Amino acid sequence: MTIQTDEEGYLVDPAQWNEAVAEQLAQAEHIALGEMHWQAIRFMRRFLDEHQVAPDARFVVRHLAEDCGLGAEARKRLFELFPYGYVKQACKIAGMRRPRAWSTG
Predict the structure, then answer these.
(1) CB atoms within 10 A of CB 70
(2) At what angle do helices 57-66 and 35-51 cross, to 10 degrees?
(3) How high is the pLDDT of residue 101?
């Protein structure tokens, strides 16, 4: 499957996203997606669908803490899952455009 990305590797058309695309994007980031990755990514996609904007990392941290049972370890775990940053990797793999107002860290 060929997907069109911008010069930073983000999808040009977020509507093109599906889980197979996420696997391709993750592979390009050298990430093997596990269940906790999918918990974060699926939450991010639901948030995007509901609010028409990419979720801030704090919403994903809250989801991981409360809904996935990670508690106080959630923030640390999010950045272990996506070691080069929430925007650079999580948002990219979840098929979102790079948020303009956020840093890539």
Answers:
(1) 18
(2) 120
(3) 62
All domains of the chain in start order, with CATH: 14-93 (1.10.10)
Predicted TM-score (pTM) of the model is: 0.90
11 burial (CB, 10 Å; 0-12 / 13-18 / 19+) is: buried
Cross-strand pairs, 11? 5
| Angstrom distance (rounded) from CA 44 to CA 94 | 7
**Who contacts 60 (Cβ-Cβ below 8 Å, separation ≥6)?**
40, 43, 44, 78, 86, 90
Enclosing H/E stretch for 24? helix 19-28
First-last CA distance in the chain: 29
| Confidence (pLDDT) at 1 | 64
Q: Which ranges of the chain have pLDDT less than 50?
A: 103-105
By CB atoms closer than 10 A (0-12, 13-18, 19+), residue 35 is exposed
